[in-house]
Amino acid sequence: MQSSRQSARSTQSEPPLAQRDLLTRLVRARPLFVAAAFFLLGCVLERMCDLPALALASLLAFLLILCIPLRRSRLLPVLLILAMLPFGALRFSQQWHSFDPLPEQKGVALSGRICEMPDWREDKQRCICVIEDIRIDGAEVSGRLRLYLRSDEENPELLQAPVLGQSIACTASIWRGDSPTNPGQFDFDAYLRLQGLSGYATAKIEDAMLDAPQYSLSDQRKLLIERIGGRIDRLFPEHSALARAFLLGDRSALSEEERSSFSDSGAAHLLAISGMHISILAGALTLLLRCILGRRRSFTLVLILLLGYGALIGFSASLTRAILMFAVFGAAPLLGRYSDAPTRLAAALLAYLLARPIAILDVGFVLSYGASAGILLLTPALRNLLHLDALLHRRPEQGLRNQLLHRPLRWIAGMVVTSLAAQLAILPAVIHAFGAQPLFSIAVNLVAVPLAMLGYIVAILGVLLGFAPVAQLADCIFGLLTSCVRFFGDLPLSTLRIARFPLWLSLLCAAACLLSSNLSRLPMRVRRFLPLTIILAALVSNGLSLLSTRGCSVVFLDAGQADCAVIRSEGKVYLVDAGDSYSPAADYLSAMNYDLEAVFLSHPHTDHIGGLAGVLEVCTPKRIYISSNWEGPDMDEGALELVNTAVEQGAELVCLSAGDEIALSGKTLLQVLSPTAGIPAASANDDSLILRLRYGDCACAFTGDAPAAAVTGLIGDCDVLKVGHHGSTKSVNASLLAELTPSVAMIPVGENSYGHPAAETLELLELADSRICRTDECGAITCRLNADGSVKLYTYLSSEDANELE
Predict the structure, then answer these.
(1) How far apart are CA 162 and CA 208, in angstroms?
(2) What's this model's pTM, rounded to 2 decimal places?
(3) C-beta separation of 427 from 450 below 8 A
(4) Exposed, middle or buried, 542 (CB in 10 Å: 0-12/13-18/19+)?
(5) What is the pLDDT of residues 739-752, one digit of tens each?
(6) How far from 696 is each of 288, 570, 668, 699, 799, CA to CA, in Å?
(7) Rounded distance, CA 584 to CA 556, Å?
């Protein structure tokens, strides 16, 4: 009697589950969902902040110890879920550091076994191998390396000689992947870790010794994949590369044109084996096996077949998610448990991250799980917003015609909502990875998805049966699919460029997805508009990019041993030199979604113009400015070709000489101080464009690679000096610095064998009381010029917010 009274009082004191806050409801109703979210958050925080491992382990131990006296309390699930946060961070840290790069070394004796199919790149005349069982100078080393083999002579037969399973020994140089030192730059270090590599090495194929191959069990699987790939090539002569992508998840044979078509049209997700492929395959197998076996046995056999399929072609993020969700979906009712879609997705996410937490840096992982989460969370709100519930749930009127029309309309409405939900959820990730959002993705998916799924099933039958007519039918379907995506990808304005979302804005988009779902307590009249805030976030991201161009600032990008600077002045953007062929300029312009007004090329040397090719792939500047004495005997090969390419794309070519002035904006003026037209100097360095940027009382000087003798007497006083020729001994002298009195001395420099910047140059700059900023130490450096003559500095690699110099 007393216990029943206590139970009644406790029931009265607790509000109903529907009236509790969102977090409490999720913990009680969907603990796995919240646990997966906290584990994911721990991984993200560790990546962002590099948290101390001891502190994380202490916090995890404290929370687990608290669970002992509270094991019968209602707080136990809360504590266990909170423990997932430090656990996720620790797991990420452990796996991240397990792939720490090997020390950089040159001219070492390297040996190992080729454990992946070598990739022969004919266009670059090199062979790429992955090696394990590594020895460096005879000492065993854990981990794997990517080995780039090249030849001093064009010798394709020699470069195609390495095969899987061979042992290789060579003299090589070992390098670590570069971490980003500029906004928007590709993170090569993270990419190598995601591939399970501890760095990369370079060697000459002529110096390599190859032994007879010895195959492991893993090698046998890869050889089987290669044999299946050969069978696909024979059965699908027209579209074998697409068939390989659909059946084996191998996209390496796709041409750049095919990749671009699928990406630009918004159908790139079809090239990854994901939930659509697995649902079709699992459904067909289940339907077939249930005719023979019972429900439990047919599910078990289908799951085994799917796991075998994954083991054969490799467990990609999207494939693993689909198989795990199918496993939970089928096993739950057999075990007498209930599982809804969010729980299934959370189970797949948690299982995958426990095994591979660094996958949060993998674009494929983010797009796969993000799209699935978007479909689950945003679909109800979008259906309500578009008033589709009546169409999707009402029964058709009597009559064959009405019923035949109703089904396609329901299917189209469902596809539109599903595609829109997925696209909105992954919009920040798509912009981060590709820099643009396909505008016709919903329309193309209405046609491409049915073609892709039909082609997938027919292609499987063609490969299994080896029946040529079936394979030819699949080949024709793939041809229609290719034509479809190419048509949409080639349409004018097929993609919309958007500035990369800041992290805080991406997190707000994730919160909007959660709050607009059925998990939220918000009324539907509010929730149905929340998905639109993701579109608003895109406008905010572009607005923030536009705000960064207000006033006048110069961003000196870290281009290694090369020059590249971006001038942002009152809404307009200019480039002063483009760096070498691996310049970060293109990535930076793409990430910020800048339209380029003009490019100033100081002189025709590769370390100043090589990056123009990449820039032209991102955007076409309105004008290209070059020196009036541009052509000379020491012009680097390809300089004229790059400039001509820009002109062919629509850029105007303008020659500059001393005395010219260009108004970059209403308050910003760029003055050309050298060279003098018609009076060529002895070298291209001496003929560099010498430019003075003026914004109010503030001035910035760009000297190209001109020596101090060519600069003296031209510039006058300046606040920021771009030191010429990477700080060589001839770049400055005492008389020049006495004339300029720069507050800031910018030295674009990278690893080199010339001793740049020279010790004498650094000493002279220190004596001149100039703040020395080096891109090799600070990464990208932003100088914000103020009209009162002061300069504010921001460094990409520094934890300091800003430093202001008068």
Answers:
(1) 10
(2) 0.87
(3) no
(4) middle
(5) 999 999 999 999 88
(6) 78, 13, 8, 8, 29
(7) 11
